[in-house]
Amino acid sequence: MEELSHFINGQRVAGTSGRFADVYNPALGEVQSKVPLASKAELDAAVAAAAEAQPAWGATNPQRRARVMMEFVRLLNRDMDKLAEALSAEHGKTLPDAKGDVQRGLEVIEFCIGAPHLLKGEFTDGAGPGIDMYSMRQPLGVVAGITPFNFPAMIPMWKMGPALACGNAFILKPSERDPSVPLMLAELMQEAGLPDGVLQVVNGDKEAVDAILDNPTIQAIGFVGSTPIAEYIYGRGCSNGKRVQCFGGAKNHMIVMPDADMDQAADALVGAGYGAAGERCMAISVAVPVGDETADRLIEKLVPRVEKLKVGPYTAGADVDYGPLVTGAAKERVLGLIGSGVEQGADLVVDGRDFALQGYESGFFLGPSLFDKVTTDMEIYRQEIFGPVLSTVRAKSYDEALGYAMDNEYGNGTAIFTRDGDTARDFASRINIGMIGINVPIPVPLAYHTFGGWKKSGFGDLNQHGPDAFRFYTRTKTVTSRWPSGLKEGGEFHFKQMD
Ligand code: NAD
Questions:
Q1: 330 strand-pairing partners
Q2: DSSP secondary-structure letter at 290?
Q3: What is the pLDDT of residues 48-59, one digit of tens each?
Q4: What is the pLDDT at residue 483?
Q5: Of the candidates 125, 138, 137, 136, which has an alpha carbon nearest to the alpha carbon of residue 481?
Q6: Rounded Cα gap, residues 314 and 292, in angstroms
Q7: CA distance 434 to 425
Q8: Hey, which residues are catalytic here?
Q9: Which of 75, 209, 265, 478 is deepest in the core (most CB within 10 A)?
Q10: How many Å lie between the centroid of ligand 1 and the Cα of residue 291?
Q11: Phi/psi at 257 (nearest 5 deg)?
Protein backbone atom coordinates (compact mmCIF):
# COMPACT_ATOMS: atom_id res chain seq x y z
CA MET A 1 0.00 0.00 0.00
CA GLU A 2 1.30 3.46 -0.92
CA GLU A 3 2.55 5.48 2.03
CA LEU A 4 2.20 9.22 1.56
CA SER A 5 4.56 11.73 3.15
CA HIS A 6 5.02 15.28 4.34
CA PHE A 7 6.76 17.94 2.23
CA ILE A 8 9.55 19.55 4.24
CA ASN A 9 12.48 21.68 3.08
CA GLY A 10 11.77 21.08 -0.57
CA GLN A 11 11.24 17.35 -0.53
CA ARG A 12 8.87 14.56 0.39
CA VAL A 13 9.70 13.27 3.84
CA ALA A 14 8.32 10.14 5.50
CA GLY A 15 6.40 10.53 8.74
CA THR A 16 8.11 9.44 11.94
CA SER A 17 5.22 9.43 14.42
CA GLY A 18 4.16 5.89 13.52
CA ARG A 19 0.55 7.10 13.23
CA PHE A 20 -1.31 6.97 9.92
CA ALA A 21 -4.79 7.61 8.55
CA ASP A 22 -6.43 5.64 5.74
CA VAL A 23 -7.04 7.49 2.48
CA TYR A 24 -9.90 5.99 0.47
CA ASN A 25 -10.88 5.74 -3.12
CA PRO A 26 -14.52 6.64 -2.37
CA ALA A 27 -15.86 5.22 -5.64
CA LEU A 28 -14.46 1.78 -4.81
CA GLY A 29 -14.82 2.10 -1.06
CA GLU A 30 -11.24 0.86 -0.69
CA VAL A 31 -8.23 2.21 1.15
CA GLN A 32 -5.74 3.32 -1.51
CA SER A 33 -2.97 4.81 0.62
CA LYS A 34 -1.92 5.78 4.10
CA VAL A 35 -1.10 9.32 5.16
CA PRO A 36 1.27 9.98 8.05
CA LEU A 37 -0.13 11.96 10.98
CA ALA A 38 2.52 14.33 12.30
CA SER A 39 3.50 14.51 15.94
CA LYS A 40 3.97 17.83 17.72
CA ALA A 41 7.75 17.36 17.38
CA GLU A 42 7.46 16.94 13.58
CA LEU A 43 5.26 20.02 13.30
CA ASP A 44 7.59 22.09 15.47
CA ALA A 45 10.61 21.02 13.41
CA ALA A 46 8.86 22.04 10.18
CA VAL A 47 8.03 25.43 11.68
CA ALA A 48 11.61 25.95 12.88
CA ALA A 49 12.91 25.24 9.37
CA ALA A 50 10.31 27.59 7.87
CA ALA A 51 11.40 30.32 10.28
CA GLU A 52 14.97 29.98 8.99
CA ALA A 53 13.87 30.20 5.37
CA GLN A 54 11.42 33.09 5.77
CA PRO A 55 13.70 36.15 6.19
CA ALA A 56 15.40 35.67 2.80
CA TRP A 57 12.03 35.07 1.11
CA GLY A 58 10.53 38.10 2.86
CA ALA A 59 13.48 40.19 1.65
CA THR A 60 13.09 38.96 -1.95
CA ASN A 61 11.50 41.78 -3.88
CA PRO A 62 7.76 41.38 -4.48
CA GLN A 63 8.15 41.22 -8.24
CA ARG A 64 10.48 38.23 -8.00
CA ARG A 65 8.08 36.54 -5.61
CA ALA A 66 5.28 37.24 -8.10
CA ARG A 67 7.32 35.58 -10.85
CA VAL A 68 7.29 32.35 -8.82
CA MET A 69 3.48 32.62 -8.77
CA MET A 70 3.47 33.23 -12.53
CA GLU A 71 5.50 30.10 -13.16
CA PHE A 72 3.34 28.15 -10.72
CA VAL A 73 0.27 29.06 -12.81
CA ARG A 74 2.00 27.72 -15.92
CA LEU A 75 2.82 24.46 -14.12
CA LEU A 76 -0.73 24.10 -12.80
CA ASN A 77 -2.03 24.36 -16.35
CA ARG A 78 0.60 21.90 -17.56
CA ASP A 79 -0.38 19.35 -14.90
CA MET A 80 -4.12 20.06 -14.80
CA ASP A 81 -5.15 16.55 -15.90
CA LYS A 82 -2.80 14.86 -13.45
CA LEU A 83 -3.97 17.02 -10.56
CA ALA A 84 -7.64 16.47 -11.40
CA GLU A 85 -7.17 12.72 -11.62
CA ALA A 86 -5.42 12.54 -8.22
CA LEU A 87 -8.05 14.81 -6.73
CA SER A 88 -11.00 12.77 -8.01
CA ALA A 89 -9.41 9.50 -6.94
CA GLU A 90 -9.28 10.63 -3.30
CA HIS A 91 -12.28 12.96 -3.08
CA GLY A 92 -14.65 11.26 -5.50
CA LYS A 93 -15.85 14.37 -7.37
CA THR A 94 -16.16 14.22 -11.15
CA LEU A 95 -13.18 15.11 -13.33
CA PRO A 96 -14.71 18.36 -14.67
CA ASP A 97 -15.50 19.36 -11.09
CA ALA A 98 -11.95 18.47 -9.99
CA LYS A 99 -10.57 20.70 -12.75
CA GLY A 100 -12.86 23.47 -11.47
CA ASP A 101 -11.39 22.94 -8.00
CA VAL A 102 -7.85 23.46 -9.38
CA GLN A 103 -8.99 26.34 -11.61
CA ARG A 104 -10.60 28.33 -8.80
CA GLY A 105 -7.37 28.04 -6.80
CA LEU A 106 -5.28 28.94 -9.83
CA GLU A 107 -7.30 32.15 -10.26
CA VAL A 108 -6.31 33.26 -6.77
CA ILE A 109 -2.66 32.61 -7.67
CA GLU A 110 -3.18 34.77 -10.78
CA PHE A 111 -4.48 37.52 -8.51
CA CYS A 112 -1.35 37.10 -6.36
CA ILE A 113 0.82 37.93 -9.38
CA GLY A 114 -0.36 41.48 -8.66
CA ALA A 115 1.34 41.39 -5.24
CA PRO A 116 3.81 44.20 -6.03
CA HIS A 117 0.87 46.54 -6.59
CA LEU A 118 -1.07 45.29 -3.57
CA LEU A 119 1.94 45.63 -1.27
CA LYS A 120 2.88 49.17 -2.35
CA GLY A 121 1.66 50.78 0.84
CA GLU A 122 0.70 54.42 1.39
CA PHE A 123 2.68 57.65 1.31
CA THR A 124 1.89 61.18 2.41
CA ASP A 125 4.29 63.72 1.04
CA GLY A 126 4.63 66.73 3.36
CA ALA A 127 2.50 65.54 6.29
CA GLY A 128 4.11 68.43 8.19
CA PRO A 129 7.01 70.78 7.57
CA GLY A 130 9.73 68.56 6.15
CA ILE A 131 7.82 65.52 7.32
CA ASP A 132 6.79 62.53 5.20
CA MET A 133 4.66 59.69 6.43
CA TYR A 134 4.50 56.24 4.90
CA SER A 135 2.92 52.93 5.72
CA MET A 136 4.31 49.66 4.50
CA ARG A 137 2.94 46.16 4.56
CA GLN A 138 5.38 43.62 5.91
CA PRO A 139 5.03 39.86 6.11
CA LEU A 140 4.12 38.33 9.45
CA GLY A 141 6.80 35.62 9.37
CA VAL A 142 5.62 32.02 9.59
CA VAL A 143 1.87 31.52 9.07
CA ALA A 144 -0.29 28.41 8.77
CA GLY A 145 -3.34 27.13 6.93
CA ILE A 146 -5.63 24.28 8.00
CA THR A 147 -7.91 23.13 5.20
CA PRO A 148 -10.96 20.86 4.63
CA PHE A 149 -11.42 17.82 2.44
CA ASN A 150 -13.98 19.25 0.05
CA PHE A 151 -11.68 21.51 -2.02
CA PRO A 152 -8.22 19.94 -1.68
CA ALA A 153 -6.71 22.14 -4.43
CA MET A 154 -8.65 25.38 -4.27
CA ILE A 155 -8.59 26.12 -0.56
CA PRO A 156 -4.88 25.31 0.02
CA MET A 157 -4.15 27.69 -2.89
CA TRP A 158 -6.45 30.38 -1.44
CA LYS A 159 -4.25 30.24 1.65
CA MET A 160 -0.75 29.63 0.32
CA GLY A 161 -0.93 32.04 -2.64
CA PRO A 162 -1.46 35.30 -0.75
CA ALA A 163 0.61 34.17 2.26
CA LEU A 164 3.66 33.42 0.08
CA ALA A 165 3.22 36.38 -2.25
CA CYS A 166 3.31 38.63 0.84
CA GLY A 167 6.69 37.15 1.83
CA ASN A 168 5.64 34.75 4.58
CA ALA A 169 6.69 31.15 5.04
CA PHE A 170 3.63 28.91 5.03
CA ILE A 171 2.78 25.71 6.89
CA LEU A 172 -0.10 23.84 5.26
CA LYS A 173 -2.00 21.21 7.23
CA PRO A 174 -4.37 19.79 4.61
CA SER A 175 -7.26 17.43 5.22
CA GLU A 176 -6.11 13.91 6.01
CA ARG A 177 -8.89 12.59 3.75
CA ASP A 178 -7.34 13.79 0.47
CA PRO A 179 -3.72 14.87 1.00
CA SER A 180 -2.18 13.97 -2.39
CA VAL A 181 -3.02 17.14 -4.30
CA PRO A 182 -1.65 19.48 -1.60
CA LEU A 183 1.64 17.53 -1.77
CA MET A 184 1.65 17.86 -5.57
CA LEU A 185 0.99 21.60 -5.26
CA ALA A 186 4.02 21.96 -2.97
CA GLU A 187 6.19 20.16 -5.52
CA LEU A 188 4.96 22.46 -8.27
CA MET A 189 5.72 25.52 -6.13
CA GLN A 190 9.21 24.12 -5.68
CA GLU A 191 9.58 23.60 -9.42
CA ALA A 192 8.33 27.16 -9.93
CA GLY A 193 11.29 28.46 -7.93
CA LEU A 194 10.08 28.73 -4.35
CA PRO A 195 13.09 28.33 -2.01
CA ASP A 196 13.26 25.26 0.23
CA GLY A 197 11.46 25.51 3.54
CA VAL A 198 9.21 28.43 2.58
CA LEU A 199 6.25 26.09 2.00
CA GLN A 200 5.96 23.06 4.28
CA VAL A 201 3.11 20.56 4.02
CA VAL A 202 2.60 18.76 7.31
CA ASN A 203 -0.05 16.08 7.21
CA GLY A 204 -1.92 15.26 10.34
CA ASP A 205 -4.98 15.36 12.54
CA LYS A 206 -5.88 17.07 15.81
CA GLU A 207 -2.37 16.58 17.20
CA ALA A 208 -0.80 18.57 14.36
CA VAL A 209 -3.55 21.19 14.56
CA ASP A 210 -3.03 21.65 18.28
CA ALA A 211 0.71 21.93 17.69
CA ILE A 212 0.01 24.73 15.17
CA LEU A 213 -2.28 26.48 17.64
CA ASP A 214 0.34 26.39 20.39
CA ASN A 215 3.53 27.01 18.39
CA PRO A 216 4.76 30.49 19.36
CA THR A 217 6.55 31.07 16.04
CA ILE A 218 3.33 30.83 14.00
CA GLN A 219 1.89 34.31 13.72
CA ALA A 220 -1.38 33.71 11.91
CA ILE A 221 -3.74 30.85 11.08
CA GLY A 222 -6.25 30.60 8.27
CA PHE A 223 -8.76 27.78 8.78
CA VAL A 224 -11.57 26.38 6.64
CA GLY A 225 -13.77 23.51 7.81
CA SER A 226 -16.78 22.74 9.97
CA THR A 227 -18.13 25.27 12.45
CA PRO A 228 -17.36 23.43 15.72
CA ILE A 229 -13.69 23.11 14.71
CA ALA A 230 -13.64 26.70 13.41
CA GLU A 231 -14.86 27.92 16.81
CA TYR A 232 -12.27 25.81 18.60
CA ILE A 233 -9.40 27.04 16.43
CA TYR A 234 -10.51 30.65 16.60
CA GLY A 235 -10.77 30.56 20.39
CA ARG A 236 -7.50 28.77 21.11
CA GLY A 237 -5.54 30.53 18.36
CA CYS A 238 -6.67 34.01 19.45
CA SER A 239 -6.02 33.32 23.11
CA ASN A 240 -2.49 32.31 22.10
CA GLY A 241 -2.09 35.77 20.61
CA LYS A 242 -2.28 34.79 16.93
CA ARG A 243 -4.15 36.46 14.11
CA VAL A 244 -6.87 33.96 13.15
CA GLN A 245 -9.55 33.75 10.48
CA CYS A 246 -11.85 30.72 10.40
CA PHE A 247 -14.49 29.85 7.84
CA GLY A 248 -17.09 27.33 8.92
CA GLY A 249 -20.14 25.40 7.80
CA ALA A 250 -23.25 26.56 6.02
CA LYS A 251 -26.95 26.11 5.40
CA ASN A 252 -27.60 28.06 2.25
CA HIS A 253 -31.18 29.04 1.41
CA MET A 254 -32.49 29.82 -2.06
CA ILE A 255 -35.71 31.81 -2.11
CA VAL A 256 -37.93 31.20 -5.13
CA MET A 257 -40.44 33.99 -5.72
CA PRO A 258 -43.73 33.35 -7.55
CA ASP A 259 -42.52 35.42 -10.52
CA ALA A 260 -39.27 33.42 -10.96
CA ASP A 261 -38.57 31.52 -14.14
CA MET A 262 -39.40 28.13 -12.63
CA ASP A 263 -37.36 26.09 -15.14
CA GLN A 264 -34.33 28.25 -14.48
CA ALA A 265 -34.85 28.00 -10.71
CA ALA A 266 -35.23 24.20 -10.85
CA ASP A 267 -32.10 23.80 -13.00
CA ALA A 268 -30.17 26.04 -10.63
CA LEU A 269 -31.34 24.12 -7.57
CA VAL A 270 -30.39 20.77 -9.02
CA GLY A 271 -26.85 21.93 -9.87
CA ALA A 272 -26.34 23.82 -6.62
CA GLY A 273 -27.97 21.19 -4.41
CA TYR A 274 -26.49 18.00 -5.78
CA GLY A 275 -23.25 19.05 -7.52
CA ALA A 276 -20.20 17.48 -5.83
CA ALA A 277 -22.70 15.30 -3.91
CA GLY A 278 -23.69 18.39 -1.92
CA GLU A 279 -20.21 18.52 -0.36
CA ARG A 280 -19.76 22.25 -0.95
CA CYS A 281 -19.94 25.01 1.62
CA MET A 282 -21.80 27.05 -1.00
CA ALA A 283 -24.23 24.24 -1.94
CA ILE A 284 -27.87 25.21 -1.74
CA SER A 285 -29.38 22.85 0.82
CA VAL A 286 -32.70 24.62 1.44
CA ALA A 287 -35.15 25.78 -1.22
CA VAL A 288 -37.72 28.29 0.04
CA PRO A 289 -40.56 28.71 -2.45
CA VAL A 290 -42.91 31.58 -1.59
CA GLY A 291 -46.56 30.51 -1.65
CA ASP A 292 -48.00 27.00 -1.95
CA GLU A 293 -48.65 27.42 -5.63
CA THR A 294 -44.98 28.30 -6.25
CA ALA A 295 -43.92 25.35 -4.09
CA ASP A 296 -46.11 22.92 -6.03
CA ARG A 297 -44.82 24.20 -9.37
CA LEU A 298 -41.22 24.02 -8.15
CA ILE A 299 -41.53 20.46 -6.82
CA GLU A 300 -43.17 19.41 -10.08
CA LYS A 301 -40.19 20.80 -12.02
CA LEU A 302 -37.61 19.44 -9.59
CA VAL A 303 -38.70 15.80 -9.33
CA PRO A 304 -37.96 14.70 -12.91
CA ARG A 305 -34.68 16.63 -12.89
CA VAL A 306 -33.57 15.04 -9.62
CA GLU A 307 -34.60 11.56 -10.74
CA LYS A 308 -32.58 12.00 -13.92
CA LEU A 309 -29.30 12.80 -12.15
CA LYS A 310 -26.45 10.46 -13.04
CA VAL A 311 -24.36 9.28 -10.12
CA GLY A 312 -21.13 7.39 -10.68
CA PRO A 313 -17.35 7.19 -10.47
CA TYR A 314 -15.12 9.96 -11.83
CA THR A 315 -13.69 7.50 -14.32
CA ALA A 316 -16.95 7.84 -16.26
CA GLY A 317 -15.86 11.40 -17.12
CA ALA A 318 -18.42 14.04 -18.01
CA ASP A 319 -21.24 11.44 -18.17
CA VAL A 320 -21.65 11.65 -14.42
CA ASP A 321 -23.31 14.53 -12.53
CA TYR A 322 -21.80 13.73 -9.18
CA GLY A 323 -19.77 11.04 -7.43
CA PRO A 324 -19.63 9.29 -4.07
CA LEU A 325 -19.38 10.85 -0.64
CA VAL A 326 -15.87 11.14 0.72
CA THR A 327 -15.99 8.32 3.30
CA GLY A 328 -18.24 5.54 4.52
CA ALA A 329 -18.75 7.49 7.75
CA ALA A 330 -19.94 10.54 5.79
CA LYS A 331 -22.41 8.34 3.89
CA GLU A 332 -23.73 6.77 7.12
CA ARG A 333 -24.20 10.21 8.67
CA VAL A 334 -26.21 11.46 5.68
CA LEU A 335 -28.32 8.28 5.67
CA GLY A 336 -29.06 8.85 9.36
CA LEU A 337 -30.16 12.41 8.69
CA ILE A 338 -32.45 11.37 5.83
CA GLY A 339 -34.02 8.78 8.18
CA SER A 340 -34.56 11.46 10.81
CA GLY A 341 -36.28 13.68 8.25
CA VAL A 342 -38.73 10.91 7.45
CA GLU A 343 -39.31 10.19 11.14
CA GLN A 344 -39.91 13.84 11.93
CA GLY A 345 -42.59 14.10 9.26
CA ALA A 346 -41.00 15.70 6.18
CA ASP A 347 -42.16 14.45 2.75
CA LEU A 348 -39.36 12.46 1.10
CA VAL A 349 -40.39 13.09 -2.50
CA VAL A 350 -37.29 11.48 -4.02
CA ASP A 351 -35.49 8.85 -1.97
CA GLY A 352 -31.83 8.28 -2.86
CA ARG A 353 -31.02 5.90 -0.03
CA ASP A 354 -31.15 2.62 -1.92
CA PHE A 355 -28.90 3.68 -4.75
CA ALA A 356 -26.61 0.92 -6.04
CA LEU A 357 -24.16 0.82 -8.91
CA GLN A 358 -23.00 -2.38 -10.49
CA GLY A 359 -19.29 -2.92 -10.00
CA TYR A 360 -19.16 -0.25 -7.27
CA GLU A 361 -21.18 -1.94 -4.55
CA SER A 362 -18.69 -0.89 -1.85
CA GLY A 363 -18.45 2.73 -3.06
CA PHE A 364 -19.80 5.53 -0.87
CA PHE A 365 -22.55 6.50 -3.32
CA LEU A 366 -25.91 7.94 -2.45
CA GLY A 367 -28.68 8.78 -4.87
CA PRO A 368 -30.22 12.26 -4.73
CA SER A 369 -32.90 12.86 -2.09
CA LEU A 370 -35.50 15.61 -2.18
CA PHE A 371 -37.61 16.63 0.81
CA ASP A 372 -40.75 18.76 0.75
CA LYS A 373 -42.59 20.34 3.70
CA VAL A 374 -39.54 20.56 5.92
CA THR A 375 -39.94 22.67 9.07
CA THR A 376 -37.24 24.55 10.91
CA ASP A 377 -37.35 22.34 14.02
CA MET A 378 -36.31 19.22 12.07
CA GLU A 379 -32.75 17.85 12.26
CA ILE A 380 -32.45 17.93 8.47
CA TYR A 381 -33.01 21.69 8.66
CA ARG A 382 -30.93 22.34 11.74
CA GLN A 383 -27.81 20.46 10.66
CA GLU A 384 -25.52 20.99 7.71
CA ILE A 385 -26.12 17.69 5.86
CA PHE A 386 -23.20 17.97 3.41
CA GLY A 387 -24.70 15.33 1.13
CA PRO A 388 -26.96 15.04 -1.94
CA VAL A 389 -30.10 16.13 -0.10
CA LEU A 390 -32.24 19.16 -0.86
CA SER A 391 -34.88 20.31 1.63
CA THR A 392 -37.86 22.45 0.72
CA VAL A 393 -39.25 24.80 3.37
CA ARG A 394 -42.47 26.43 2.21
CA ALA A 395 -43.00 30.10 3.10
CA LYS A 396 -46.25 32.03 2.89
CA SER A 397 -44.65 35.38 2.08
CA TYR A 398 -41.39 36.99 1.03
CA ASP A 399 -40.87 38.28 4.57
CA GLU A 400 -41.30 34.81 6.03
CA ALA A 401 -38.80 33.40 3.50
CA LEU A 402 -36.32 36.17 4.26
CA GLY A 403 -36.80 35.45 7.97
CA TYR A 404 -35.82 31.79 7.56
CA ALA A 405 -32.50 32.72 6.00
CA MET A 406 -31.90 35.54 8.47
CA ASP A 407 -32.74 33.48 11.57
CA ASN A 408 -30.53 30.58 10.51
CA GLU A 409 -27.34 30.37 12.54
CA TYR A 410 -25.20 30.10 9.42
CA GLY A 411 -24.57 32.96 7.02
CA ASN A 412 -22.34 31.76 4.22
CA GLY A 413 -24.31 32.14 0.99
CA THR A 414 -27.89 32.60 -0.18
CA ALA A 415 -29.78 33.26 -3.38
CA ILE A 416 -33.06 34.65 -4.61
CA PHE A 417 -34.75 33.81 -7.89
CA THR A 418 -37.13 36.49 -9.07
CA ARG A 419 -37.87 38.78 -12.01
CA ASP A 420 -38.54 41.68 -9.70
CA GLY A 421 -35.62 44.08 -9.23
CA ASP A 422 -37.15 45.75 -6.21
CA THR A 423 -37.47 42.45 -4.31
CA ALA A 424 -33.95 41.40 -5.29
CA ARG A 425 -32.53 44.72 -4.17
CA ASP A 426 -34.37 44.59 -0.86
CA PHE A 427 -33.09 41.03 -0.32
CA ALA A 428 -29.46 41.92 -1.02
CA SER A 429 -29.65 44.95 1.22
CA ARG A 430 -31.39 43.40 4.27
CA ILE A 431 -30.02 39.88 4.46
CA ASN A 432 -27.40 39.10 7.14
CA ILE A 433 -25.36 36.72 4.99
CA GLY A 434 -21.95 37.20 3.36
CA MET A 435 -22.42 36.12 -0.26
CA ILE A 436 -25.62 36.76 -2.20
CA GLY A 437 -26.82 35.45 -5.55
CA ILE A 438 -29.55 37.14 -7.57
CA ASN A 439 -30.72 34.51 -10.03
CA VAL A 440 -27.29 32.95 -9.42
CA PRO A 441 -27.41 29.85 -7.21
CA ILE A 442 -23.77 29.56 -6.10
CA PRO A 443 -22.46 33.11 -5.77
CA VAL A 444 -18.78 32.32 -5.15
CA PRO A 445 -16.92 35.60 -5.61
CA LEU A 446 -14.04 35.68 -8.07
CA ALA A 447 -10.42 35.88 -6.90
CA TYR A 448 -10.23 39.69 -6.90
CA HIS A 449 -13.25 40.02 -4.61
CA THR A 450 -13.27 38.40 -1.20
CA PHE A 451 -14.94 35.24 0.04
CA GLY A 452 -16.42 34.92 3.51
CA GLY A 453 -19.59 34.15 5.42
CA TRP A 454 -21.27 35.85 8.37
CA LYS A 455 -22.62 34.50 11.65
CA LYS A 456 -21.42 30.93 12.37
CA SER A 457 -19.93 30.62 8.89
CA GLY A 458 -17.07 33.03 9.51
CA PHE A 459 -14.93 34.06 12.47
CA GLY A 460 -12.43 36.90 12.29
CA ASP A 461 -12.31 40.30 10.66
CA LEU A 462 -11.06 39.68 7.16
CA ASN A 463 -12.24 37.48 4.30
CA GLN A 464 -10.33 35.03 2.13
CA HIS A 465 -8.60 36.00 -1.12
CA GLY A 466 -8.93 39.36 -2.86
CA PRO A 467 -7.51 42.44 -1.12
CA ASP A 468 -8.47 41.12 2.35
CA ALA A 469 -5.99 38.25 2.03
CA PHE A 470 -3.16 40.74 1.55
CA ARG A 471 -4.29 42.55 4.70
CA PHE A 472 -4.54 39.29 6.64
CA TYR A 473 -1.05 38.08 5.72
CA THR A 474 0.76 41.38 6.33
CA ARG A 475 1.02 43.88 9.10
CA THR A 476 1.25 47.60 8.68
CA LYS A 477 4.20 49.61 9.80
CA THR A 478 3.95 53.39 9.61
CA VAL A 479 7.00 55.61 9.47
CA THR A 480 7.05 59.34 10.17
CA SER A 481 10.26 60.77 8.83
CA ARG A 482 11.87 64.16 8.86
CA TRP A 483 15.05 65.16 7.12
CA PRO A 484 15.42 68.72 8.35
CA SER A 485 18.55 70.75 8.37
CA GLY A 486 19.06 69.57 11.96
CA LEU A 487 17.16 68.92 15.16
CA LYS A 488 18.28 71.94 17.14
CA GLU A 489 15.39 72.75 19.44
CA GLY A 490 15.87 69.94 21.92
CA GLY A 491 13.18 67.43 23.00
CA GLU A 492 9.44 67.75 22.51
CA PHE A 493 7.07 66.76 25.29
CA HIS A 494 3.65 66.85 23.64
CA PHE A 495 2.14 65.31 20.49
CA LYS A 496 3.17 67.53 17.63
CA GLN A 497 0.44 69.14 15.52
CA MET A 498 1.28 68.66 11.82
CA ASP A 499 0.79 72.36 11.01
P1 NAD B 1 -13.45 19.45 9.40
O2 NAD B 1 -13.81 20.57 10.32
O3 NAD B 1 -13.74 18.06 9.83
O4 NAD B 1 -11.87 19.48 9.07
C5 NAD B 1 -11.22 20.66 8.66
C6 NAD B 1 -9.78 20.62 9.14
O7 NAD B 1 -9.76 20.58 10.57
C8 NAD B 1 -9.02 19.38 8.65
O9 NAD B 1 -7.73 19.77 8.27
C10 NAD B 1 -9.02 18.48 9.87
O11 NAD B 1 -7.87 17.66 9.92
C12 NAD B 1 -9.04 19.43 11.03
N13 NAD B 1 -9.75 18.88 12.20
C14 NAD B 1 -10.79 18.02 12.19
N15 NAD B 1 -11.18 17.73 13.43
C16 NAD B 1 -10.37 18.42 14.26
C17 NAD B 1 -10.28 18.53 15.69
N18 NAD B 1 -11.11 17.89 16.49
N19 NAD B 1 -9.33 19.34 16.20
C20 NAD B 1 -8.49 20.01 15.40
N21 NAD B 1 -8.53 19.94 14.04
C22 NAD B 1 -9.46 19.16 13.47
O23 NAD B 1 -14.14 19.79 7.99
P24 NAD B 1 -14.21 18.88 6.69
O25 NAD B 1 -15.18 17.77 6.93
O26 NAD B 1 -12.87 18.56 6.19
O27 NAD B 1 -14.85 19.91 5.65
C28 NAD B 1 -16.22 20.14 5.51
C29 NAD B 1 -16.66 21.37 6.29
O30 NAD B 1 -15.94 22.51 5.83
C31 NAD B 1 -18.12 21.70 6.05
O32 NAD B 1 -18.69 22.10 7.28
C33 NAD B 1 -18.08 22.86 5.07
O34 NAD B 1 -19.20 23.71 5.10
C35 NAD B 1 -16.86 23.57 5.54
N36 NAD B 1 -16.30 24.42 4.50
C37 NAD B 1 -16.42 25.77 4.66
C38 NAD B 1 -15.93 26.63 3.69
C39 NAD B 1 -16.04 28.12 3.87
O40 NAD B 1 -15.31 28.84 3.19
N41 NAD B 1 -16.89 28.60 4.76
C42 NAD B 1 -15.34 26.11 2.54
C43 NAD B 1 -15.23 24.71 2.41
C44 NAD B 1 -15.71 23.88 3.40
A1: none
A2: B
A3: 999 999 999 999
A4: 85
A5: 125
A6: 38
A7: 15
A8: 281
A9: 265
A10: 36
A11: -80, 160
